[in-house]
Amino acid sequence: MPDSEPTDRAATAVKRALAMIQDLESKLAKAKQAARAPIAVVGIGCRFPGDVSNTTAYWRLLSEGRDAITEVPASRWDLDAYYDPDPDKPGKTNSRWGGFLSDVDLFDAALFGIARREAEAMDPQHRLLLETAWEALEDAGIAPDGLIGRQIGVFVGLSTSDYGTLLGAGRDESWIDAYAALGNAPSIAAGRLAYAFGTQGPAMMVDTACSSSLTAVHLAVQALRAGECGTALAAGVNLTLSPALTINFSKARMLAADGRCKTFDADADGYVRGEGCGVVVLKRLADAEAAGDRVLAVIRGTAVNQDGRSAGLTAPNGPAQEAVIRSALANAGLSPDAVDAIEAHGTGTSLGDPIEMHALAAVFAGRSRPLLVGSVKTNIGHTEAAAGVAGLIKAVLMLRHQSVPASLHFRTLNPHIDLAGVPIEVPIASTASELGCVGVSSFGFSGTNAHVVLERAPAKSTVDPRPAHLLTLSARDAGALEQLRGRWLDALAPSNADLPALARSAAGRARLPHRLAVVAADAAAARTALSTAAVSVAGRPRVAFLCTGQGSTYAGMAAGLMDLSPVFRSVVERCDAVMGLDRPLAQLFNDGALLARTDYAQPALYALSAGLGALWRSWGIEPVALLGHSVGEYAAAHLAGVLSLEDGAKLIATRGRLMQALPAGGGMAALLGNEASVRGLLARHPEVEVAGLNSPMAMTVAGPVAAIDRLLADPALSGGMAGQKLTVSHAFHSKLLEPMLDELAATAN
User: Fold this and answer.
1) Degrees (nearest 5) of the Cα angle 638, 640, 641?
2) Are the beta carbons of 445 and 345 closer than 8 angstroms?
């Protein structure tokens, strides 16, 4: 017969090659899926003109169609000294207007551990970023003081540095100290955020001019999808502290003389500068849902490109804008028909508006449904480096409220705009609309274009059944707490305010000394209670976690937590995945008969204690000490960081299985009395041994059932002592368990 060995080797090689190909295809599929992973917006902090200090105030301004533009305040510069209606007048600007933030000179330096001298040297844009990032993290239910060492990315859009110029104006170099460069270097804007919070993910400052902050969002999304970080902050900030750039833009004929962005209107003649700061907290959607985070909206796709050679260095490029929108839709895996509205770049310039609208018409040609297109610049001005994130936050709020705010100052479509029959509409009044998807554009005069495609947050699958909710607030001092109370009164005011979500968000915040708390069934009741709640001043309490041993189980334990707490449920599911039990832990929690078996009781207790520990920690409660009793020692070791959750789960499941397999016939008893008397009694019963010394007056003993019965029947027990037989399946913590030790040790190794 012919030798079959070569054929066998060839078959084996083919199988290996096929396996390698399948493995490669699997990896490529996963990589492709990761490159398009949806990203959740889980928190927002913002400061915009019109006294906007949170998203509630921002939506109120937008939905009411308010114009937040004012004359330049004296706190910025002497308006009359720099204004002239003739834009060609040297050293003058033809604009008297702008969108301004109040109190930009104020900063809670102590909250961030920054000395006054250092704070004075810091660009107010950096200060504003710190405070707004803190608020965004808290809005996401993330305690800003608990991030040290975490892989959190920081991506900041920033383009100007007026403050450094002002500091040195009219002075010699003697004013320069050690803080001057650190306080004003643009790169420090991102680095200081990472330093302040102790994060160790990627951190970078982005300057692509007007598209800086939306480009920062794009980079944050890429970092999350690549696994470079688990959470990301994407931000933009802009303050106009000096008239210099306003004069420059006036000379370039960029500014509207009347101080209004008349986006897409026939009278569009330029924009008005605006100030602002916006920070969004991003996580992979799968991670956010697993953690039970409130998802505000979902980023489905992003893209960035460049104009390249256009009509001029700062002139927009229509085909490039069209391309970046198509790229973002492709990244999202969506067709143009899926988009319901566009938050446009929309500066209100006679050149830029027609180019942008023609690019939109090209992308969305052939649709039958109207595409609503507006621009927040008509409300708050062009916030430049913060413009993209201002538009992004507006789009998130549009999706949450299912409404498109009016685009102000629009009366007649610019005659240079030809929509070619595409049903694009500029809303002139706040319009209720069924919105599933909104696109956001931001184009920099550097030529860098960015587009983000947002989708409405997934509908919640369950309604929180709890009859009441605890809302906790804290701040560093009494004044800050009152400001926080005011912001929360605003947050609770809308008729659709989600108290369970708000309470969960508040529970994850930093625990600061000045505190208040209210319990309420709904948002209206919470608002009433919050308005009069008393303030307490407290330090962090010293809390210890005790993980209990066998005997504390009961049918129905943890049932409510499995339904209500994603944090607890996630721990239990991770234990389930590695314990190798023949039924899920959730079933064991509800079955008293099964919990009487040690092979089920031990894994159930471990998962329960580990889940409870994770839950308390998610609320910001950290133990100063951990104690475990018997089986509870394994959970305590995990919570102390000695064992990973999965390693502890495997070990305890093996322990329970091995103990259950031991022969029956072991028993245990609890003895009360002073240790000397009890040990004297035990000397009369050598088969019984000490299983646990629980206190100077309490001891647990173990041994054969017959020996335990003889001990409890001993007349000497009545001499100042007492005993109680325990309902157990084996003589735990005794030499009767020694036959299982070798296999348990092998598992542990």
Assistant:
1) 65
2) no
Spatial contact of 281 and 233, defined as CB atoms under 8 Å apart: yes
How far CA 457 is from CA of 138, 287, 337, 409, 670, in Å, comes to 19, 14, 19, 31, 56
Q: Residue 461's pLDDT is what?
A: 64
Query: What six digits make up the tokens of 303?
Result: 């893209």
Q: What are phi and psi of 677, to 5 degrees?
A: -65, -40
Name the residue among 586, 629, 626 with its Cα closest to residue 608. Answer: 586
Q: Give CA separation, 638 vs 612, 624, 632, in Å.
A: 12, 15, 10
* Residues β-bridged to residue 450: 304, 442
Is residue 159 within 8 Å of residue 214, measured between CB atoms? no
Helix (H), strand (E), coil (C) string for 590-639: CCHHHHCCHHHHHHHHHHHHHHHHHHHHHCCCCCCEEEECCCHHHHHHHH
Instruction: Report the run of H or E that residue 298 belongs to, with start and end.
Output: strand 297-306
Q: How far apart are CA 298 and CA 287, in angstroms?
A: 13
Global pTM?
A: 0.79
What is the distance, to the nearest Å, from the Cα of residue 587 to the centroid of all Cα atoms in its chain? 32
- State the Cα–Cα distance between residues 241 and 330, nearest whole angstrom: 40
Please give the Cα distance from 673 to 671 (Å, whole number).
Answer: 7
Phi, psi for residue 695 in degrees, rounded to 5: -165, 170
State residue 476's pLDDT score.
87
The Cα–Cα gap between 625 and 613 comes to 12
Query: How far apart are the two ends of the chain, measured CA to CA in Å?
Result: 50
**320 touches 441 (CB < 8 A):** no
Beta strands per DSSP E along 444-507: 448-456, 469-475
Query: Could you give the C-alpha distances from 282 to 43, 207, 295, 376, in angstroms and in order?
Result: 7, 20, 10, 22
Structure tokens at 297: 């909206």
Residue with tokens 């697993």: 290
Tell me what pLDDT residue 253 has: 93
The partner residues of 351 in beta bridges, in order of sequence, read none
Which residue's structure tokens are 């509630």?
56
**pLDDT at position 464, please?**
72
Cα–Cα distance, 392 to 384 (Å, whole number): 14
Instruction: Classify residue 662 by its DSSP letter.
Output: S
pLDDT tens for 141-150 read: 899 998 999 9
Point out the residues of the chain with pLDDT beneath 70: 1-4, 25-32, 461-463, 539-540
Q: Which residue has the tokens 């399946």?
A: 729
Task: Give, as one character, the DSSP assignment of residue 73.
Answer: P
Residues 6+ apart with CB under 8 A from 48: 58, 61, 68, 99, 101, 274, 275, 276, 277, 278, 380, 383, 390
Q: Do residues 357 and 373 lie in contact, with contact meaning Cβ atoms separated by under 8 Å?
A: yes
Q: Can you give the pLDDT at residue 28? A: 65
Please tell me the distance from the alpha carbon of residue 341 to that of residue 442, in angstroms, as a whole number.
Answer: 15
AA identity, residue 669: A
pLDDT digits (tens, 9 = 90+) for 30-58: 666 777 899 999 999 999 999 999 999 99
Residue showing tokens 């060995």:
5
